[in-house]
Specification:
The complex is a heterodimer of chains A (about 140) and B (about 400). Chain A contains four helices and three strands. By secondary structure, chain A is α+β, with helices and mostly antiparallel strands. Chain A has one domain: Sufe protein. Chain: A (Alpha-Beta Complex). Chain B has two domains: about 150 residues, Aspartate Aminotransferase, domain 1 (Alpha-Beta Complex), CATH 3.90.1150.10; about 240 residues, 3-Layer(aba) Sandwich (Aspartate Aminotransferase, domain 2). Classes of the chains: A alpha+beta (about 140), B alpha/beta (about 400). At the A-B interface, strand 2, strand 3 and helix 2 of A face helix 10 and helix 14 of B.
């Protein structure tokens, strides 16, 4: 039911882990539905994402979308990171089964939540970034 | 995939070779329609009669009380809808439990929309209904009690004989969904005061697509399917002769080997449970510790999600199942796991392993060894585990 890319990212997830004293961290989802994603970002003084790590409680698609989302945001500026939408994550994974589309939405929300946390801490505004409603961290 | 380790025998079983051999003549040799008048039809009819007797004997019933159907779900639908309809003048109240199979639950929900009232009995942490709650739920307009013999997810065996006694004393019909239990544990229609019982062929090494409804002599319920005089006017449709013959053979084999099979499966199950509980922390066994199906083991592993576990097991050729929402495309995890009081996140991390008499200790040892690694890997990835470990550390620090 999953594409080869999804299986690859599930079996060999990139960027699993934590970042100590992260520039931003966001946790979204809820245990009731069976998906929780936490994304850590390390952002340098130029606003470039140097590193991204994740922890995810969830199904195969949840793990794969977290892995892909962290891969996609690395090296991007915080502004560019907003282009890592759920659609972009899904495309990079060669698609997801319809019932798993919400996992890619969660990945986008987790990135946004981490960026929001960063923006709050540094008193900056990232154009187009709204306060995440789903951050449960 | 080189070799499959099949631990999903509650979903379906491998048909035994003896069953297959018993069925084969009824596809191309004795392919007649048993309802016809010529001698050739008589041979098929004889085979069906033998099967009916075999299926009846396994639950100590009479052959004429067995009605062949297309499977367990049909039998459940028939029993509940037809009983509700037949006794609608007496009342429109049905009692069932919260942990029934969807073939029962959804049928009850359908009847609710048609004006029936349904009481869904709670279960305790082991998945057992309360007989006191059952007694107090019975009303003058109660027409049917439907409680499963054994649960398909957590394996808990319900106190069927006691339920039957209460139902009989109160003049209420008693139906039991025995799809998981029939052929696996001893059943006695008379002694257990069972009025209606559903069973399915493929859960006891028989073929798929054939089941039966036991209707105690004297219980008057209407047909579900109309259009023919088969099954004494109660279930229309040309008989699935080969399937019925296979079901009969499977029942006869189950009866002959039940004791041996139960002993073997119980020993394997205990080995599995013991190792998993000892070697994987933050894990619990779901279902009754002793009053459970011989081949069922169901665990919850905290901080991780079931589908991820299933995919990792699948890559090793291990077939298992989970009550996680993700495995069904639903949002909520299994209604059974919620009914025994598990919080959502723990219910999501469940794993059901159901054995067969072909399962070996070597296979189970391999599964446990791999499961230890899989659970470890998924916990390393889990934010819930991270939070839990940090909170433990903090507690540890304050203790110092």
């Amino acid at each position: 039911m999953y594409s080869e890319k999804v299986m690859d990212h599930f079996n060999h997830p990139r960027n699993v882990g934590e970042i100590e004293e992260p520039s931003g961290v966001g946790t979204v989802g809820n245990a009731k539905c069976g998906d929780i994603m936490r994304i850590y970002l390390d952002i340098d003084e130029q606003g470039v994402i140097q590193d991204a790590k994740f922890k995810t409680f969830g199904c195969g698609a949840a793990v794969a979308t977290s892995s892909m989302a962290t891969e996609l945001v690395k090296g991007k500026t915080v502004q560019e990171a907003l282009t890592v939408t759920n659609k972009a994550v899904m495309e990079a994974l060669d698609g997801l089964p319809p019932v798993k589309v919400h996992c890619s939405l969660l990945a986008e929300e987790a990135i946004h939540a981490a960026l929001w946390d960063y923006a709050q801490k540094h008193h900056i505004v990232i154009d187009g970034l709204k306060e995440p409603v789903a951050d449960i961290g | 995939m080189d070799k499959i380790i099949y631990l999903d025998n509650a979903a379906t079983t491998k048909m035994s070779e003896e069953v297959l051999n018993a069925m084969l003549p009824y596809f191309r040799e004795t392919y007649s329609n048993p309802s016809a008048i010529y001698t050739f039809a008589g041979e098929a009819q004889k085979a069906v009669d033998t099967a009916r007797a075999q299926v009846a004997k396994l639950m100590k019933a009479n052959a004429e009380e067995i009605y062949f159907t297309g499977g367990g779900s049909e039998s459940d639908n028939w029993a509940i809808k037809a009983a509700a309809e037949a006794y609608r003048e007496k009342g429109r109240h049905i009692i069932t439990s919260k942990i029934e199979h969807h073939a029962v639950l959804h049928t009850c929900q359908y009847l609710e929309k048609q004006g029936w009232e349904v009481t869904y009995l709670d279960v305790d942490e082991n998945g057992t209904i309360s007989l006191d709650e059952l007694r107090t739920s019975i009303r003058p307009d109660t027409v049917l009690i439907s409680v499963m013999t054994a649960n398909n997810e957590i394996g808990t065996i319900e106190p069927v004989a006691e339920i039957g006694k209460i139902a009989r004393e109160n003049g209420v019909l008693f139906h039991t969904d025995a799809v998981q239990a029939y052929g696996h544990i001893p059943l006695d229609a008379e002694a257990m005061n069972i009025d209606l019982l559903s069973a399915s062929g493929h859960k006891l090494n028989g073929p798929k697509g054939v089941g039966m409804l036991y209707i105690r002599k004297g219980v008057r319920i209407h047909p579900l399917l109309h259009g023919g005089a088969q099954e004494r006017n109660r279930r229309a449709g040309t008989l699935n002769v080969a399937g019925i013959v296979g079901f009969g053979k499977a029942a006869a084999l189950a009866e002959a080997y039940m004791e041996e099979k139960t002993a073997r499966e119980t020993a394997l199950r205990e080995h599995l449970i013991k190792r998993i509980l000892a070697e994987i922390p933050f894990c619990r066994l779901n279902g009754h510790r002793t009053s459970r199906l011989p081949n069922n083991a169901n665990f919850s592993f905290r901080f991780i999600e079931g589908e991820s576990m299933l995919i990792m097991l699948d890559q090793l050729g291990i077939c298992a199942s989970s009550g996680s929402a993700c495995t069904s495309g639903a949002l909520d995890p299994s209604h059974v796991l919620l009914a025994i009081g598990l919080p959502h996140e723990i219910a999501h991390g469940s794993l059901r392993l159901t054995l067969s008499d072909e399962t070996t200790t070597k296979e189970l040892d391999f599964v446990v060894d791999e499961l230890v690694k899989i659970v470890g890997r998924l916990r390393e990835m889990s934010p819930l585990y991270e939070d839990f470990m940090k909170s433990q550390e903090e507690k540890g620090n304050t203790n110092v």
